[in-house]
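pasting for ref
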Amino acid sequence: MDLGIRGKKAIVCAASKGLGRACAISLAREGVDLVITARGAEALEATASEIRAKYQVNVTTVVGDISTEEGRAAALAACPAPDILVNNCGGPPPGDFRDWQREDWIKAIDSNMLTPIFLIKSVVDGMIGRKFGRIVNITSASVKSPIPHLGMSNGARAGLTGFVAGLARQVAKHNVTINGLLPGPFNTDRIRNSSLAMAVKAGKTMEEALADMGKNNPAGRIGDPAEFGEACAFLCGAQAGFIVGQNLVMDGGNFNSSMG
C-alpha cells in the first residue's frame, strides 16, 4: 500500500534507537525526507547512515536534547516546515512517589508533556496552511492502564493526551491529524536493560527474562519495534486523515478492555 507521503518532510524525535528509530525507518521506506534527533551522536549517525544506504531519502541529523529549548530550536532550524512530526522522548524513572521532589515532577512534565506541546505549537499552523499535517505522539500504554511504579510517566503522558484530545478536533478540518501511539513491551534497549536487572536477580539470562515477559502477554511475545514503526507510518499516511485524536495501544493485548 502506497501511503501517499513520498517527498514529505518529517521530524522524528529520539530516533537513534528503539521505537523512534523504527518510525524513522518506516517513514523513509515511504519516501519521506527525515530530520532525526537524539542526544547520542554516534548512534544517531549510525541510524542515519543505515537509512541513507537503504532508501533514497535525505536524512539530516540533529544532536541534542529535544526536551530543552535549544534541542527543539535546532530540530526546527533543520526542518522549519515539517509535514510530519513524531514526538518521542525518554520516560522518567520508576519509583515511589513519596521519594519524588518537585524538581523530579517538573522534569517529567517538561519532557513528556510540554516538549511535545511546544513542538506541536511550532509546526501546526504551517501544516494548517499547507492543508496537510500528521502528528504522532509516542506515549505509553500506561495512559490507559497506569503502571504503579511509573507514576511520573502516568501523570505527564496523561496530561499530554488530555491536551491533544481537544486540539486534535480543532485542526482536523484542515487535514491535520494528531494521534497517540501507546507502546507496551517492545524489544528495545530500554526494556532489555530493565530485563537484565530482573534476570540477574532471578538467576536467568536476559533472553530468558524477555521470554518470560512474553509468556505473560496475550500475544505470547513482546513486540518488534518494526511493527510499531509500521503503525506510525500508517497514521502519517495520506489515507489516515479520518483518524483523529485517537490513542492506539500496541501491547499485544495486555490492556484488557472491551472498549479501547
